[in-house]
């Protein structure tokens, strides 16, 4: 089989590898589609501190089970499945409180263990979620990015009366936006970005107001319109944003961050405590595949609005470069296998 391997930072090869046999409790998936994410590019460029090389990247993937290991019912062969990349131990403290996404021995497919940019991948059977016939292949491969939004919004308990503000109109901002509008029916969602083309995509995904903050002070702009966000999601993740979010937030608001920068950011206790703000963070997803499959069945979200490009996996280097360089026209780039 062919696999996309990052041999070391900045060295990508399509390598012939032996077809893997599923171990006990595992299934083998014949991959049909995979999605490119910022973290794939970070591993490729050597910017992911968790990555070990060589690595088959890819943690957003969909395919068909073509073999099963010991202890897995052979009736699973032929099932269409989307794979949850989060592998956890099941018994540490975070696992015991339903948060396997921060398991103390967390393994993420495509990061710590070989992932889905490959003709075949072996994964734990429990991580391969059956996709109902009514959900298309293209939508099934988009489940993982929407689980990030499900995890984030699930912590915030949005209501339709919230005034929500999302920083960033990349894939993460747009999945969060679709969740707030489609699932939680939040009446007012504002999206802030620096790229007009991306803000246009936000409008297509249901934003009620878009703000380009490249040349204006966001606080002044919101004050002018008398807007005090009650729920803020930072899907842009620059370290300076948290302090701004604290400043623009309504008293009693909730703020959620999802960034991984190791740069310090300056915030004050007073800013948070005087308004009794709640600050949340969200990483990956905690068992959110069934929830997003349900959203898709009920047509509460529309992944099609995020898919901008498709490449054959043999052109993966060009696909990643397009994804990295062309933020104006790219949102989700898919690879076909
Ligand atoms: P992206 O880079 O495609 O989108 C970020 C957007 O934020 C861009 O459109 C950019 O123009 C905008 N932006 C940057 N600085 C801004 C500012 N100061 N104000 C307003 N907009 C600004 O990235 P993507 O894929 O949407 O991911 C967003 C972030 O989420 C990344 O930092 C990524 O590392 C993180 N992430 C976190 C996950 C988690 O589970 N916690 C999972 C996936 C991504
Ligand atoms: Mn991803
Ligand atoms: Zn654990």
Characterize the structure shown.
α4 packs across α5. The strands form 4 sheets. Strands 3, 5, 6, 9, 10, 17 and 18 form a 7-stranded mixed β-sheet that branches. The termini are close together. The protein is 27% helix and 26% strand. α5 links the parallel β11 and β12. It has 337 residues and is of the alpha/beta class. The chain has 11 helices and 18 strands. Bound molecules: 1,4-dihydronicotinamide adenine dinucleotide, manganese (II) ion and zinc ion (ZN). The site of 1,4-dihydronicotinamide adenine dinucleotide has 27 residues, from α5 and β12.
Could you say which small molecules are bound to this protein?
Answer: 1,4-dihydronicotinamide adenine dinucleotide, manganese (II) ion, zinc ion
Biggest sheet record: 7 strands, mixed
Structural class comes to alpha/beta
Computed over alpha carbons, the radius of gyration is 20 Å
Helix content: 25-40%
Q: Quick one: how many beta strands?
A: 18
Number of helices: 11
Query: What sort of overall outline do the alpha carbons produce when their principal axes are compared?
Result: globular
Poorly predicted spans: none
As a percent range, the share of strand residues is 25-35%
Average predicted local confidence, pLDDT = 98
Order of helices and strands: EEEHEEEEHEEEHHEHEHEHEHEHEHEHE
N→C terminal distance: 11 Å
């Amino acid at each position: 089989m062919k696999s996309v391997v990052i041999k070391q930072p900045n060295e990508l090869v399509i390598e012939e590898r032996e077809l893997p046999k599923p171990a006990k409790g595992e299934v083998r998936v014949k991959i049909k589609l995979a999605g490119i994410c910022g973290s794939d590019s970070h591993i490729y460029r050597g910017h992911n501190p968790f990555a070990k090389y060589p690595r088959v990247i890819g943690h957003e993937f969909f395919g068909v089970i073509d073999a099963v290991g010991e202890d897995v019912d052979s009736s699973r062969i032929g099932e269409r499945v989307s794979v949850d990349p989060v592998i956890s131990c099941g018994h540490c403290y975070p696992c015991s409180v339903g948060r396997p996404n921060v398991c103390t021995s967390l393994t993420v497919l495509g990061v710590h263990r070989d992932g889905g940019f490959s003709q075949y991948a072996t994964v734990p059977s429990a991580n391969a979620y059956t996709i109902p016939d009514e959900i298309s292949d293209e939508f099934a491969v988009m489940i993982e990015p929407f689980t990030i939004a499900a995890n984030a919004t699930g912590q915030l308990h949005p209501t339709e009366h919230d005034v929500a503000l999302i920083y960033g109109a990349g894939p993460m901002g747009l999945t969060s936006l679709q969740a707030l509008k489609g699932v939680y029916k939040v009446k007012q969602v504002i999206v802030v970005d620096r790229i007009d083309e991306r803000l246009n995509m936000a409008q297509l995904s249901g934003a009620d107001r878009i703000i380009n903050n490249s040349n204006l002070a966001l606080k002044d702009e919101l004050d002018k319109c008398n807007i005090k966000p009650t729920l803020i999601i930072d899907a842009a993740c620059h370290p300076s944003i948290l302090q701004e979010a604290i400043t623009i937030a309504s008293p009693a608001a909730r703020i959620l961050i999802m960034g991984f920068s190791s740069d310090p950011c300056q915030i004050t206790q007073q800013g948070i405590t005087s308004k009794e703000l709640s600050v949340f963070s969200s990483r990956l997803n905690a068992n959110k595949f069934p929830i997003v499959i349900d959203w898709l069945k009920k047509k509460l979200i529309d992944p099609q609005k995020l898919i901008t490009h498709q490449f054959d996996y043999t052109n993966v280097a060009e696909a990643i470069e397009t994804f990295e360089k062309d933020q104006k026209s790219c949102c989700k780039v898919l690879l076909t296998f």
